[in-house]
Amino acid sequence: MYQLFTDTDTDITPEVAARYGYHLISMPYSVDGTTTYPYEDFDTFDVHGFYEMLRSGVLPSTSAISEERYKAYFEPVFAAGDDILYVHFSAAMTATFDVMKRAVDELLLKYPERKFHTVDTKGITIISYNIVLAIGELYKAGKTAEEILAWAAQEVDHYAVYFFADDLKFFKKSGRVSGLAAMMGTLVGVRPIIHMNEEGKMVSIGKERGRVRAMERLVAYVEELGDGVKEHTVVVGHTDAPDIAEEVAGMLREKFGDDLSIVFVPVNPTAGSHCGPDAVGISFHAKHR
Question: Greater confidence, 181 or 247?
Answer without folding.
Answer: 247
